[in-house]
Amino acid sequence: MKPEKTILINGHKHIQFQHESVSENEMLKRATTFYNMCNKRRSIRDFSEKEIPIEVIENLIKTASTAPSGANKQPWTFCVVKSAEIKHKIRLAAEEEERKSYAERMSDEWLEDLKHLGTDANKPFLETAPYLIIVFKKPYEIDAEGKKHPNYYVNESVGLACGFLISAIHNAGLVTLTHTPSPMRFLEQILKRPSNERAFLVLPVGYPATETFVPDIERKKLNAIMNVY
């Protein structure tokens, strides 16, 4: 094994990147295989209560943590909720906000756009899924002396990490749903998160229920989403 090459850039150590080179045929094969896998992903609202080893969840989150972030600040926290009591509290609070949204906050056009998905203010998946992963973003860090230090491109960074996480969940043979009850400050309160964390996304994780149905919808075709210049 060759010794690792290192250099200094602006006085900071850099290590040589190790790249796996593959043929164009292998490249296309991998790209096609990954697309075909991801194209089977659906947002699932009916979960089985079947248990999942915590080691699987740990590896999913480790995968999410490989996402790029502004200045490598990694401005995220992933809270894993298994407790039935805490999941129940989260469901009650989320449904309260959702009822207000469906009754008062959402426009008529928004509600009309949601009809074909069959959603409403009831969120039983927040209790039936064996795990909830609550993703928090961190606009700033707080050092030992209580001083604030900014993070950069926080929404973009955390959004990328969530994309990695969703792909990892699907790759593991599990299902999830992106749930964003708004506002979400109740999550910070229930989980007693520090003042520099803001709830970003709720991901129930588990197996689908034995009989699960999803909306009969299609993704946009490539020529509607891609432009080559």
Automatic annotation (TrEMBL):
InterPro entries: Nitroreductase, Nitroreductase-like, Nitroreductase/BluB. Residues 40-207 form the Nitroreductase domain. Pfam families: Nitroreductase. Keywords: Flavoprotein, FMN, Oxidoreductase. Gene3D superfamilies: NADH Oxidase. This is Nitroreductase family protein.
